[in-house]
Amino acid sequence: MYDQQGKLLITSTCKKYPSRRSKLIIKLAIVSLFSFQSFAVDSKELVELSFEELGNIQVTSVSKRSESINEAAASIFVITNKDIQRSGAASLPEALRLAPNLQVAQDNARNYAITARGFNTSVFANKLLVLIDGRTIYTPLYSGVFWDAQDVVLEDIERIEVISGAGATLWGANAVNGIINIITKNASQTQGGLVSISGSDNEQYTALRYGGTLNNGGSYRVYAKHAEHEDTHQELNNKSLEDGLRRDKVGFRSDWETGNDKFTFQGDFYNGYLHELTARDIQISGANVLARANTLLPNGSNLSIQGYVDYTFRDQANAFKENLTTTDIEIKHDWKITERHNLIWGGGYRIGFDRIDNDNNFAFLPEQKNLHWANVFAQDEISLTDSLRLTLGLKLEHNSYTGMESLPNARLGWKFADNQFAWASASRSVRAPSRFDTDLFAPTVAPFILAGGPNYESEIANTYEIGYRATPTPKTSVSVTGFYTEYDKLRTLEFSPGFPLIFENNASGRAHGVEMWGSWQTTEKLKLSGGLVIQEVEINRPVGEQSRIFSLNSNDPSSHSLLRVSYDITPNHLLDVTIRHVNKLPRPQVPAYTALDLRYGWKINKDLEFSIVGQNLLDPEHAEFSRASTRPDYDRSLFAKVQWNFR
After folding, report:
1. Contact in structure between 618 and 595 (CB atoms under 8 Å)
2. How many CA atoms lie within 13 A of 636 on its CB side?
3. What is the pLDDT of residue 553?
4. pLDDT tens digits, 394-451
5. What is the C-alpha separation between 567 and 563, in angstroms, rounded?
6. Around Cβ 510, how many Cβ atoms within 10 Å?
7. Alpha-carbon separation of residue 504 from 26, 492, 527, 548, 550 (angstroms)
8. What is the mean pLDDT of the chain?
9. Residue 553's Cα: distance from chain center in Å?
10. Cβ(94)–Cβ(639) under 8 Å?
11. 562 - beta bridge partners?
12. Is 170 in contact with 464 (CB distance < 8 Å)?
């Protein structure tokens, strides 16, 4: 495919497996015919949460305890399960697009660049902390997330809490520009069976889940999921870019209660193959088990203990082979000392056994390394008056690279009316060094040697925020946040004697902007929601140092916005429109684009739903990220899904 100037474009259409569309249609038809029953749907099942209920959604990411979102002193947006289902999102990164305070760009068939408040990059975004049910999923290899290895059954997500801004006092290093906390449903909420089949020409997903009860009165669920994404390719010569994936995942979760005690035990296993241009497939696999206990003590306080073991394997062709085993334990005590003091305190310890087999062209030295993190934290929430609340917190965290780090924060919240809340905060956070920063050795980056810096320090961020949240009427809500962050000791790449290039901390920077979003339930059938982020990220080159080469991994738009329209044509027929606009990216240059997705959902009966999504409907194709030489342009596509729930 060519543009108006005759230049070659890369599209995401795949011709490698011509029979996949017919296979998908057959799967959808089988499920639909097998479970079809003609009776009306109970309209109560389709009703969205009221604005009063939305305002009372309980979130835990801001203070590590349950609190109303309308009284949380942070820039937080909650993606609900209903939001995900009605959007037509097929993968976890697509679901994250629903948060207006996140930047989500698809880099290729399997990779996404995801961040908040700037410093975005494909693969190496490193200032965002991501958790799934309390388990940290960032890799200590480069302090980021391998999104091509992350997956969940979207129907089992209860909510995703997205905080833009620092959260290091409670969550630790790397919670610099934001936190994504993915929380799945209690097993008691997923009883019975689920079959979900969806896909298009380029991607296919199948999920199976079954839940039941335990002899002790608790509940369980087990699941399996298969995901497949075809390679993108060049239209001119039909040359594949070899960036697709095939991934399988199975897992379980059980929850039960005994008196004042609550218990959770869950685990997952995955295996996959990721296509790689000019190399053999990348192989990934991993497994984890997590246990959590919460108990209500006689004095009314709450004690929580959580531990998990996580194993990941990644065989990156022509680079390295990594085996990483992580063990983590955390204890948290939520104690209401007096009527005006609510103290949350605790501590944790994590150890990672990182074992790498190096390639001749790319190495981490030493190959084997044990990584340690230990922390203690305390946060006191002080009610100065009935409407004014001050929060003071501090975390002391020790890591294997820089020793002890101090992570303080102060937040002030003022509920000056029943439907209005204002807040301000100041905090310090750090992005601790990773093995990429300190242990990397690449002798074939011609004409230089690329090496980690043995004296690399933590990158520092001091963040200041002011926000306002309100429900002006029973059918409207609004949130506005202004932010300013000063960065110091940002990563640079320096010349040194012998012509190696070494990572050091010789740059500074700042980011500032405003985030806003809101919703309006215009009628019982029609809901409008949207958001806008305006931001500026600046990196400062040290005066008089012209020889430095920067490796700051930042490619950010000056603004991005989101508009969603949800319309219930009838209780059985649902229409959703999503429009995203992203301003141009400077490094490398990517043109601004506007994407329109339209979803139609048909509730055939109370257990069976069919939906179809038209994606990228406004233009023939658009790019989102990456270098022009390897950049896919995503074209229009049609995505279908059938979901069957049974008992």
Report:
1. yes
2. 7
3. 59
4. 999 999 999 999 999 999 999 999 999 999 999 999 999 999 999 998 876 556 678 8
5. 13
6. 17
7. 56, 5, 50, 10, 10
8. 88
9. 18
10. no
11. 531, 580
12. no
